[in-house]
Amino acid sequence: GLSLSGGGSGGGGGKASPKAAEKSTEAIERRPADKLPAIGEYLPPLDDGRIEIAPPAEWKPMPRDARYLARFVPGKISEMPRITVTAWDTPLPEITELTEANAGQLAAELLAQAKKENKTVPEPHKPIILGDTLFLRHVRRAKLASGGNVVVQALDTVRGGRIYTVELIADINAPRAEQY
Hints:
Elements: E1 3-6, H1 18-24, E2 29-31, E3 51-54, E4 60-61, E5 70-73, E6 82-89, H2 103-116, E7 120-130, E8 133-143, E9 149-159, E10 162-171
Parallel strand pairs: 2-7
Antiparallel strand pairs: 1-3, 4-5, 5-6, 6-10, 7-8, 8-9, 9-10
Helix pairs in contact: 1-2
């Protein structure tokens, strides 16, 4: 797996709606750090020193691109799968850090944005804890500019009012999402 670490105040909740509070009572899937795949070397701090990122072991960084904080591939740069990492300001300013209490609220907002952008999301945003980090995980299908169909497994977390999105992008030849 990929590792994302960074400083944060640890607070900054934001109020959860009653519906979000109901969802937070569901058990959140947890994967301890020792059960995650090995990681490689950390890159120097990114996003003005806010976070550090390490790719999965044996993956290598791709050349810098202004649209991404980092990109990684296991083989040739032109091939899939690949991992991208982006950062953007949270659409909900009251959520400065992702917590179990506000995860439902942010998940609903991100899903609404995806629908507004006509994205196909067969698995909506759902909290998951990987190591010590809480993420919202979702899966969507997309089409590359080159015309290829891909599946995107995404993880979002919030640190200091910024959303960090880690996307694993893989080829998909199946016409139906349940086949990937």
